[in-house]
Amino acid sequence: MENKLKIIYILQILDSYLDNITYIKKKFKKKILKIEEDFKNIKKNKEEVNNEILDLKKKKSFKKNKIQETENLIKKYKKNEKKDFFIKKEIDYQYLEIELLKKKINNIKEKNNKKKEEYKKIEKNLLIKKIFLKNKKKEKKKIKKINKIKKKKKKNLNNNKIKKIKKKNKN
């Protein structure tokens, strides 16, 4: 009877140990899922910033084209100028339009530079998360190997204890 109690006690310890391992594995899986989710979000943010940068480039290009068109209009007006007051005013207006467009281009350049900096930060963060995730997955594999080894050792140890107890009972 005493030997059976010892066996039950050993089995309970093993069961408790296995429960603890299961808990750690679940906790570890949750951490990895969280990191993977963060990784996806950072990737998405990276794409959004990249799209904003592309959009700013398009706007800048559009403004430059508009400047070119305006300069062409000025040349046209100057050729046809007959000392007409309205044509002079139109030329002045076109010069102002060019100045305004240049200011807008400068604003776009500033925004673009800020977005590029943000993009670099996101890429850096993405790389860090990627490395962290890779390390956690390696750590998970190591833990699995260690747990397998521990399970085998515990099983062997328990088998040996059970054998010893059975031998005592036979004697």
Task: Produce the secondary structure layout.
Layout (H helix, E strand, L loop, with lengths): L1 H78 L5 H86 L1
Helix pairs in contact: 1-2
Overview of the structural elements:
It is built from 2 helices and no strands. The protein is mostly helical. The chain has one domain (2-170). Helix 1 (2-79) packs antiparallel against helix 2. The longest helix is centred in the last third of the chain and has 86 residues, at 85-170. It is rod-shaped and about 130 Å long. The mean pLDDT is 82.
Task: Provide key terms for this protein.
single chain, 171 residues, mainly alpha, 2 helices, 96% helix, rod-shaped
The poorly predicted ranges are none
Q: What is the count of β-strands?
A: 0
Helix-strand category: mainly alpha
**H/E element sequence:** HH
Sheet with the most strands, sense and barrel status: none
**What is the count of distinct domains?**
1
- Give the overall pLDDT as a whole number: 82
Hey, roughly how much beta strand do the residues contain? under 5%
| Spatial shape | rod-shaped
* Number of helical stretches of at least 4 residues: 2
Proportion in helices:
over 70%
- Give the radius of gyration: 37 Å
End-to-end gap: 14 Å
Describe the structure in brief.
The protein has 171 residues and is mostly helical. Helices cover 96% and strands 0% of the residues. The mean pLDDT is 82.
